[in-house]
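Protocol step 4 of 6: structure prediction from sequence.
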Amino acid sequence: MEAATTLFYNQGYMRTEISHVLKEARVARTTFYEHFHSKDELFVEYLTNKSNQIDRLLKAEVEMYETPREKVLGLFDFLTKLFAQPSYSGCSFLNVISDLPADSRKVKPIIKQQKDNVRNLFAEILQPVKKDNLADELYMLFDGALITNKIHDNPLTAISARNIAEKIL
C-alpha cells in the first residue's frame, strides 16, 4: 500500500499503472491480485486510508487549542505548515478529482465524504459558540487555500485564508 500511496499521490490515478505499483512494491502480480481485484479497488483503499489519516491529523491539530476561535485558526496554521513541507504536492483529493474517469462511482463519494468531514469539523468546533453557520464559509476558505497553493505554490495562500477567517470569526 505504501508504494501505491506514493505513486497515486505523485502521479495521479491515470498515470499510475499496476505495473508501476508492482515494481515499486517489489510484489508479484499474483500476490497483488490476492489482495486487490483491480486498480480501482487499490485506489479506493488508498483514498480511504488517506481520508482517515487526514481526519486524524486535523482533529489532533484542533485538540492543541482551547477556544473555538483558536481551533479554527489553528486549522489554517496547519495548512501553512503543510504547504511549507518539501514533499507536499497538493491535496490528495483535489489532485485526483479532475484525473478521474467520468464513471468513477466508487471514488467520488469518498472524496465528497472527506471534504464533508472537513466542513463538519468546522461546524463541530463552532457549535458551542453558536457560529456553526460559518462552517461553509470556512470550509470554502480552507479548500480555496488548498487549490490556490497548488497553483501558486506559496504558503502565503494559507496565511491569507487565515486572515480572512479571523475577520469572519
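Step 5 (inspection) to follow. The chain has a mean pLDDT of 92.
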